[in-house]
Amino acid sequence: MKYGFVAVALPGALVAVSHSEAAFAHDPTEVGNFFRARNASVMGRSRPEFKSEGVQTGAWIWDPELTVGVDFNDNVFAAPSGEESDTIWVINPTLDVETTWSRHGIQGHLLGLSREFSDFSDESTWTTDMGLSGHVDITRSVLFEAGFGAAELVESRTAAGVASIAAKPVEYDASNWFVGGQADFGRTRLILRADKIDYDFDDAELIGGGFADQDFRDREETIFTARGDYAISPFTSVFARYRKNERDYDLAPPAIANNRDSDGYMIDVGADFDIGGTARGVIGIGYNEQTYDDPAQGKLDGWGLDGLVEWYPTQLTTVTVRAARFIEDAPFEASGGFTSETVAARVDHELLRNLVLSAEIERSERDFLGIDRVDERWTASAGATWFVNRNVGVEASFTRMEQESAGAFPGQDFDQDILALRLVLRP
Q: What is the number of domains present in the chain?
């Protein structure tokens, strides 16, 4: 079953390139010089006795799932004082579909997420997310793939920007498409991919009346990724990677005060490995740079990091460490962007064949350009996933988040505790 530990129910991720490697939906792990199927994490390993087979119609497998649950949040508005608590009822239907063809393939997903607040009804939200992608196996070692996605989402109350003073959660639309290709030449692998992502934010209704225009955040991002690997062995390769981005905003002066357009890149080198019975992961270290069209903003640059490693101290325990350092766009006009640093560690332990205990801790920091502000956030969570049978699962988690913001223009300091319970149903 595709159950997983969750700290808080969130909208499904838009099918777009992420900070991590622009991964292919189809990864031919069986190809000789790039074998990456020696290890399986506690949450990722096969459990046939607890996995629903879905519904097959011809060459298609339809995999529906319904998650219902409840959250208890002691600081709904992420306020520094005068905290307000509430109970949130969650309904999260999803549908995954994929083909069973021996060559080529199509994958898709559709999901909705309803969060109904018992006391603060204006906080209630409904979000959706859909995506479709496909790959063509031109030869055993060459493939092409493409896809698109679209989502209607809301910003969390813990987000920077206007979220803390808005009367309702800020809504926005996001959409993307991508094309890519992968080819192996003996010990060498080449990956190319292009993504285009669009964001469209609704205006924020303010506490006490009025609106805060969010059109200055509407933008189109283009990302091009090129990566070359050399296989030292079938289980380890070294790589060099180049990621180029262009961020074009819909509005420019005089409609807004500052030109927010920018372009940048990240170049890194690293290793991609799968050491049998010990660890697997991808680690890249390099350099980030983002240059802004507004001379007052100048540029942000510095070292970059993108890594995720799973370590298997025993067959029943997986320790996952992830770290990243990137440059992001800021959610307010005074700043062009910020440097984001994140490091996290997670432990999943299989106490029983159908019971997994999990714990995670994460530290993140945002250092903003153009204004004196640094946000530091700690998040710690613990939970359990119970695979009852092929059709039923239960999840429970507790999450604590703490943020401190420093500088001449700080954000809000806050603490937030969330207890989440979920019931997962599948046919």
A: 1
